[in-house]
Specification:
508 residues; alpha/beta; Aldehyde Dehydrogenase, Chain A, domain 1; Aldehyde Dehydrogenase, Chain A, domain 2; 2 domains; 5-stranded parallel β-sheet; 16 helices; globular
């Protein structure tokens, strides 16, 4: 009998990587069948997912704050709610399922969903981002695999699982919504490069977005923000200040759409300062400003300890005495245009205030500041339409919020822009899209075009593929469910081989 020393060693696979690869395989299976569902069924599934998310919005908000230390429970609750029914209602009439005919131009259009979406979620807005991306995938007939931020994986996994159960109960294929339980950088990089991934939705830091773009797979990425808010002398200054404070304090300013710098003219500076103080801001003196700058930056690097913390908490850390009720800290930098660290993005309730001598100088500074968040967002407060138009033309951003909070306005929750947690930064921000990302960006269309001079009767064309109603489709089996219909033997064999290959690769 052989001794234990001579026994062959077992190669233990990387279970997390193998599990993630199998999730992608399962999602590919689900996507194949879901793309054949009719619009009525898709909307029913979307309704179920929206309700499920809304029902536990407060619970997951509290969980996210407790797990990450970022933000405000009440504000995260609202964001979670806005990512469910509000999002669904906005896109309810957008038909991404039904083929359509343009008889005048002799063109037939057939919608083609992407397939499998890999969704990267940040720690700052973990659950709201998962809700939002899952809703977009469901509405566009795509499967989705969510990769949460490691700092928010517990609440993210449970939130995704909750939505998945609701989707399957409403008739969705098993595996339509999935979440990677133990994300790591090497694991996510491996999945990003998978040929089973059809598009990546990347929300997070610039490095992660660039990694998504360089993966070899199509990617929708968003860049960092650095929104400048200009308060013109024509503005209702008290209303403008209330907008600025409510926006900058919302969820402790973890949204990239929040205002980073408040800019006005010297003639209007004292009015803006007074109005901000009345609205609940602490105006920093010179020594307070220096303390805040020193606390927030270690050389060129922002102090991540401050991300998503309250104004009072940050003030205490910086050695600044403020009232506990203070909502926003306002450091004052007298000279616009200098490359002060306080003119950079700050994911915390700190709003830098500065003043220009005239509108021309204000424009120069606004353009310079916005370049650090190029393509993102800006805000204009005032009734001077000519200045509003010049500001919007010249500042390198793709959304300008007027007389409203930029945090909520640019994201479409305080304006009529499409509601989103993905802000496209376009060409200026070296992004592939400049709009607020919606479900329409996860669908492409095949266009059947007849010759200009060729007779074409398009009236009798059957637009729905034969035998593709949801009731006739064999969905991939959930582990806990009995199969209700037979599936194609070759397809089943291929799925098993793919999963076995994943296990083998994980062990190598």
């Amino acid at each position: 009998m052989m001794g234990s020393r001579n026994m062959p060693l077992l190669n233990v696979p990387d279970r997390d990587l193998s599990s993630a690869r199998m999730k992608v395989n399962r999602a590919a299976w689900a996507a194949k069948y879901y793309q054949k569902f009719d619009r009525e069924t898709v909307l029913r599934i979307a309704e179920a997912v929206a309700k499920a998310g809304h029902d536990r919005a407060a619970e997951f908000a509290e969980w996210a704050v407790r797990e990450t230390g970022f933000g405000v429970v009440e504000d995260k609750t609202l964001k979670n709610q806005l990512s469910t029914h509000n999002l669904l209602n906005f896109y309810r009439d957008l038909d991404l399922v039904t083929s359509r005919v343009d008889e005048e131009h002799k063109i037939i259009e057939i919608p083609k969903p992407a397939g499998v979406v890999l969704a990267l979620a940040p720690a700052t807005n973990p659950v709201a981002t998962i809700y939002y991306k899952a809703m977009l995938a469901v509405l566009s007939r795509n499967a989705i695999v969510i990769s949460p931020h490691p700092a928010a994986k517990e609440c993210s996994v449970e939130a995704a699982h909750h939505l998945a159960e609701a989707a399957e109960a409403a008739g969705a294929p098993a595996g339509l919504i999935q979440c990677i339980e133990n994300p790591t950088v090497p694991l996510v990089q491996d999945i990003m490069h998978s040929d089973k991934i059809d598009v990546i939705m990347a929300t997070g830091g610039n490095a992660m977005v660039r990694a998504a773009y360089s993966s070899g797979n199509p990617a929708l990425g968003v860049g960092s923000g650095n929104a400048v808010a200009y308060v013109d002398p024509s503005a209702q200054v008290d209303a403008a200040a209330r907008c600025l404070v409510s926006s900058k304090s919302f969820d402790n300013s973890v949204l990239c759409t929040n205002e980073s710098v408040c800019l006005t003219l010297e003639e209007n500076f004292s009015n803006v300062e007074r109005a901000l103080r009345t609205a609940g801001a602490h105006i920093c003196n010179a020594s307070d400003t220096d303390r805040l700058r020193e606390y927030l930056w270690d050389g060129e690097y922002f102090n991540v300890e401050a991300v998503g913390k309250s104004a009072a908490w940050i003030a205490d850390k910086a050695g600044i005495r403020v009232s506990p009720s203070i909502k926003v800290l306002v450091p004052v930098v007298s000279t616009p245009g200098q490359d002060d660290l306080l003119f950079r993005e700050k994911l915390c309730p700190v709003l830098t205030l500065t003043a220009a001598v005239d509108f021309e100088q204000a424009m120069t500074f606004a353009k310079h500041t916005a370049k650090r968040g190029a393509g993102h967002s800006a805000a204009f407060h005032g009734d001077d339409r000519a200045r509003m138009m010049e500001f919007s033309r010249e500042v390198p951003v793709y959304r300008v919020v007027v007389n409203a909070p930029c945090s909520q306005g640019a994201a479409g929750f305080a304006t009529h822009l499409p509601p989103t947690f993905m802000i496209g930064t376009g060409f200026a921000g070296r992004s592939s899209i400049g709009e607020n990302v919606g479900p329409q960006h996860l669908v492409h269309w095949t266009r059947i075009a007849f010759g200009r001079d060729v007779p074409a009767d398009l009236g009798g064309i059957e637009l729905s593929p034969a035998g593709t109603s949801a009731a006739k489709i064999a969905a991939p089996m959930a582990v806990h469910k009995k199969p209700t219909q037979s599936v194609d033997r070759d397809e089943l064999r291929q799925l098993i081989l793919d999963e076995l290959r994943s296990l083998k690769e994980g062990s190598s």
